Target: NUDIX domain-containing protein
Amino acid sequence: MTTMIDKIAWVKLSEGKLLGARSFGRELYYIPGGKREPGETDAEALAREIKEELSVRIIPETIKACGTFEAQADGKPEGVHVRLTCYAADADGELRPASEIEEIVWLTYADRERVSAASHLLFDRLKQDGLLV
Model:
């Protein structure tokens, strides 16, 4: 039986690089975002998580779906999967690590092995679409 961890992620690209974040005490980078609170829409969860983690405000009318990716969850028992529902959006403010975030970085396809398995699928799609260097 598969257990699913359902997450929302912000796909923020700049000059062919993807914004990544790393939590305190972790090695792998992840795509900023997180889990929905009960009753939250994807857009509400995205806005809340990005404000909490990166100190910027997502502009709701610019949110666009970028795909959903599913893979084995890193550091979890076999059969625990992550479903990453990805959205692009513009934001207001200056990107700054907040909450549990130790570091934010701009990742290229060469950094693919530095992210989670579900993020590998996103990296592959962005590279295929010519959006990630």
Observations:
- The chain has a mean pLDDT of 95.
- The two ends are 37 Å apart (CA to CA).
- Helices lie at 42-54, 117-128.
- The chain has one domain: 3-128.
